[in-house]
Structures are given as structure tokens and as C-alpha cells.
Amino acid sequence: MIEEEIEEEEILSNILSESANKKVEIKSPKRGEKLRFVEMAKNNARVTLENNSAGKYEVLNEFKEILHLEKLPKKIETFDISNISGTNIVAGMCVIQDGKINKSLSRRFKIKTVFGQDDPRCMEEVIERRLRHSIDSEKSGFGALPDLIFVDGGITQIRAAKVATEKCNVNIPIYGMVKNDKHRTRALINEQKQEFPLSEEAMNLITRFQDTVHDTAIEYHRMVREKESMKSKLDDIDGIGEKKKELLLKKFGSVEKIKKASIEELQEIKGINENLAKKIKEELEN
Q1: Rounded to whole angstroms, how far apart are CA atoms 286 and 221?
Q2: Within the chain, where are the H helices?
Q3: How does strand 148-152 pair with strand 174-179?
Q4: 172 and 53 part of one domain
Q5: Which of 61, 62, 128, 208 has its C-alpha lying 20 to 30 A from 89's C-alpha?
Q6: Helix, strand or coil for residue 139?
Q7: Residue 58: which domain range?
Q8: How many CB atoms lie within 10 A of CB 62?
Q9: Three-state SS for 173?
């Protein structure tokens, strides 16, 4: 029993009957007890939807109330910087959309203007670049501007993020996610070092959020570092230019696999003869 009549009722009835191995009829009652069944089903669906929506936005309502926000933060973004001794500096960005961490909206950045270990300046650069994507066009891969920004770190990171929003002439609330001695998220703080008490559910979400952006940044840093390492080893070989290097990495996937390849397999790459293949093997094995 369904609320409205459908054009292909007979076709659908036959498909359902075949699947159920018994006769299935589709009816659209207009009165009586069967109509009340349909109305009851519709009402149950509405109540279930409202309850699910209420649960989804419960934490967001808590953020709005505790942090004294002007509107519900349906889109929250967080940022983390990753570097080792100031080399291959990268950043990760993750998003909470409608109360849930949406990994498909995560983004990664290579730092372009900061040289050396200066996390606050890196944070400023990354957030400014991210904001300008949405300012230039909401149709970009970043979508609309966030309603709220969390940064991985304390006061200096909050202030760096604030400089970025001021340069972009946008007013977005910014809070820091700070950890305790056991490296677990302890609280949200503002620029005045004020800590905000949150429910266990909200704190668990923030902890997952902080862990997710940290993992995103670390993973990207590892990938960039390995890529740089691969480049340097292949760049040292005479006769291997950008094109051959690209073809080698595309076919074998890594320098380690290139090193293990046979002379014959290396010669399958366009432009690599037997002598060059032998040279590649010798150089990578030294």
C-alpha cells in the first residue's frame, strides 16, 4: 500500500511477485482502514527522520551554545601542519559536514611561501589559500566557506588563523584543539586561553576530528618525502630525464621496484636501451 498511484504499477507488481514467489499487489487506498495504514506509515517515517536529524545536529547545537556562535556550524574545518626539521612542509584539512566527519572533503596542501620550521606562518598561508578558493568561486572543490574553524594547536595557531581570515576579510570563529599529557584532546580554547567544557559526545567527535586531520597531514608528508627521495635517486643517473623518470615510476611504482626489475623489463620503457638499463641497475644498487 502506497500513498500515490504509479504509472507502471502492473510491471512493478510482476517484478515483486517474481521476487517473492507469490502474488504481490500494489494498492493506493483512498479511504477506510487501509488509508489509515498508509497515513500511519507516513507519520512514522516523518518522526524517524526528525529524530535522526535531531541527533545529527545535537553536537552542533552544543557548539553553537557553548561557543556563543551566531549560527549553527553546519560546516566545520580543521587544519594541521606536518614537517620534520622544516623540510617538505605540508598541511592537512578535514571537514565536519552536518555533524559528521566527511573524509571525501579532506584536502592537502604543500607550503609555498614559508621556508624553515614556522608552523604559525604555515597555518596562516594554508588557511588563507583555502578561504580564497571559496571567495573566488563556491563552485571550487572547497565549496562554501566554513561556519567554524578548529586549528590543531594553541594560541599561536589561533592567532595565525585569525590573520588569514582578516586578510580575506571574512569573519569566521576560530578555536584551538589542545591535548593533554597523554596526547588526547583535552579541550577547545579561544585566543584568550579560555577553555570550553563540552559533553563527552562532543569531545569524542573533536578527538576523532583532530586525529583525522593529523593523520591526513602525516600521510601526505610521508608521501611527499618518499617522492622527493625517489626523484633524487633517479635524477642522479645520466640519461634519465623527466620523461623517462615518469615512465619508469608509472610502470614500476617505486625506485625499489625499479631496482629489482630485470634488464629486459627496463628495456621495455621507451628510450631505454641495454646500456642505459645496465647503468640504472648499477646506480640504484650502489
Answers
A1: 27
A2: 9-20, 32-66, 119-136, 155-167, 200-235, 242-252, 255-260, 263-266, 274-285
A3: parallel
A4: no
A5: 208
A6: coil
A7: 9-66
A8: 16
A9: coil
**169 and 50 belong to one structural domain:** no
In contact, 74 and 97? CB cutoff 8 Å? yes
| CA contacts within 13 A on the Cβ side of 204 | 5
Per residue in 9-45, is it b (16+ CB within 10 Å) or e — as a string?
eeeeeeeeeeeeeeeeeeeeeeeeeeeeebeeeeeee
Q: Amino acid identity of 227?
A: K
All cell numbers assigned to 265: 623489463
Distance CA 89, CA 126 (A): 11
Burial grade of 108 (CB within 10 A; 0-12, 13-18, 19 or more): middle
Domain-embedded: residue 280? yes
pLDDT in tens, 102-151: 999 999 999 888 887 889 999 999 999 999 999 998 778 899 999 999 99
Does 230 reside within a domain? no
Question: Which tens digit of pLDDT belongs to each residue from 174-207?
Answer: 999 888 777 777 889 999 999 998 888 888 899 8
Q: Between the CA of residue 162 and those of 8, 48, 239, what are the distances in Å? A: 58, 40, 49
- Residue 113 and residue 122: Cα distance in Å, rounded? 8
